[in-house]
Automatic annotation (TrEMBL):
Keyword set includes Aminoacyl-tRNA synthetase: yes
Keyword set, alphabetical order: Aminoacyl-tRNA synthetase, ATP-binding, Cytoplasm, Ligase, Nucleotide-binding, Protein biosynthesis
GO MF term set: ATP binding; glutamate-tRNA ligase activity; tRNA binding
Family classification: Belongs to the class-I aminoacyl-tRNA synthetase family. Glutamate--tRNA ligase type 1 subfamily.
Pfam family, one: tRNA-synt_1c
Keyword Ubl conjugation applies: no
Protein's UniProt name: Glutamate--tRNA ligase
Domain (Glutamyl/glutaminyl-tRNA synthetase class Ib catalytic): residue spans on this chain: 3-305
Function: Catalyzes the attachment of glutamate to tRNA(Glu) in a two-step reaction: glutamate is first activated by ATP to form Glu-AMP and then transferred to the acceptor end of tRNA(Glu).
GO cellular component, one term: cytoplasm
Native organism: Microbaculum marinisediminis
Length: 446
């Protein structure tokens, strides 16, 4: 079977890391099986959907390395949804209801008081044409419910295993509001059927919708897709993620300088039986991630863990992979500079601080007898041009001349040359700083 998956966000805000988990699990599954990935923008909520959010979704997915094979917008597919609704009406599986929210709430309270399940009693199924005409004469417009069959609905969930729902214990769901607008359920099923979606991979918060959707697929004469409901991500404090709050948005993680593969690796490997590790490419990640290895418990996304992953990725990045970004930041020094500072970076943007320390000026807290020591060290710097081993030969000469060794030798040299006590190896930094600036720093003049 040819695999087709879809990622179906609503363009009502920026994607957060939880949305990225779903998108990535779909993308990786499609890559693993040589299938297609469809981005379906569920933009039928006209009050909250925004074109700028739709554009941002495409951009953020591209940053992660996800380029859809097809992009569709639900708002442009109304004819498909209407045709599905008409078919269900013709089968007497979609029926009009005229109760107001207040009437439904009173009915629900009576059922609870009688220790009955608060399930819709299908009273609207008994209305006559005259009853319906009378309601419409009052100005009531019907909402439309889908008639569920009184049977068990089962499916083999790729994440959760065998699932069983007694559809007869559920209320007939409302598919169309009184104003004629669709709720999520029917357009989603109609689009999945029309687009040939074979696998629906989504968060476990949708698992309660699945039995209803399977019945709708079957009523429409379509084969239900294979379902997989993965565990959700929560923030470090245990709270859920939401596009409305902007918490852990891909946009903010990108602005903070994290590598897309660090974000992708953590987003899909936490909450699974695989160890969390930095993975260099989506193709490699596709070979690791499997839906049946995901835990049933929510997974905590901790930005502190992302820092460590990002550091490990950055320290392996070749110069060619970052040259453009370094140039945009005004960082020179070429490959020699990158290789010198790379082990000390958590993010590529951290290189800017080290470049400023190469360019200067540098303020070094040098006092007392270290000042005379550094004056001596400055006088021992070889003349230009420097050989490749200039640092080793220079430090050897300083050691012999001053008798210093260990921390007493290296600490003041590092402080004077870079302004900090720790950082990249001086043997790599000294040639980048150059003789003229090194002398100024060692003598306290720059």
């Amino acid at each position: 079977m040819s695999v087709t998956v879809r990622f179906a966000p609503s363009p009502t805000g920026y994607l957060h890391i939880g949305n990225a988990r779903t998108a990535l699990l779909n993308w990786l599954f499609a890559r693993r099986h040589g299938g297609r990935f469809i981005l379906r923008l569920d933009d039928t909520d006209t009050e909250r959907s925004r074109p700028e959010f739709a554009d941002a979704i495409v951009e953020d997915l591209a940053w992660l390395g996800i380029v859809p094979d097809l992009i569709v917008r639900q708002s442009e597919r109304r004819d498909i949804h209407d045709a599905a609704a008409d078919r269900l009406r013709g089968l007497d599986r979609l029926y009009p209801c005229y109760e107001t929210p207040e009437e439904l709430e009173r009915r629900r309270k009576r059922q609870l008081a009688r220790h009955q399940p608060p399930v819709y009693d299908r009273a609207a199924r008994s209305l006559t044409d005259a009853d319906r005409a009378a309601f419409e004469a009052e100005g009531r417009q019907p909402h439309w419910r889908f008639l569920l069959e009184d049977r068990a609905v089962t499916w083999d969930d790729l994440c959760r295993g065998a699932q069983h729902y007694a559809a007869g214990s559920l209320s007939d769901p409302v598919l169309i509001r009184g104003d004629g607008s669709y709720l999520y359920t029917l357009p989603s099923v109609a689009d999945d059927a029309d687009l040939g979606v074979t696998h629906v991979i989504r968060g476990e918060d949708h698992v309660t919708n699945t039995a209803v959707q399977i019945e709708i697929f079957e009523a429409l004469g379509a084969t239900p897709p294979v379902f997989a409901h993965h565990n959700l991500l929560v923030a470090a404090g245990g709270e859920g993620l939401s596009k409305r709050t902007g918490a852990l948005s891909l946009r903010s993680l990108r602005a903070d300088g994290y590598e897309p593969m660090a974000v992708a690796s953590l987003a899909v490997l936490i909450g699974s039986s695989e160890s969390v590790q930095p993975v260099a490419s989506l193709d490699a990640l596709a070979g690791i991630v499997a839906l049946d290895k995901l835990s049933r418990a929510p997974a905590t996304f901790d930005p502190a863990e992302l820092v460590g992953l990002n550091h490990r990725l950055v320290t392996d990045l070749p110069y060619d992979a970052v040259a453009g970004r370094l140039d945009e930041m005004g960082i020179g020094g070429g490959e020699a500079f990158w290789l010198a500072v790379r082990p000390n970076l958590d993010k590529v943007s951290d290189a800017l601080d080290w470049w400023r320390r190469v360019e200067g000026p540098v303020a070094a807290p040098i006092t007392g007898e270290d000042r005379a020591f550094l004056e001596t060290a400055a006088g021992l710097l070889p003349a230009d041009p420097w050989p490749d081993d200039v640092y080793a030969s220079w430090v050897g000469a300083v050691k012999r001349e001053t008798g210093r060794s260990g921390k007493a030798l290296f600490r003041p040299l590092r402080l004077a040359l870079t302004g900090v006590e720790h950082g990249p190896e001086l043997k790599a930094m000294l040639p980048l700083i150059g003789r003229e600036k090194a002398i100024l720093r060692l003598t306290g003049k720059g």
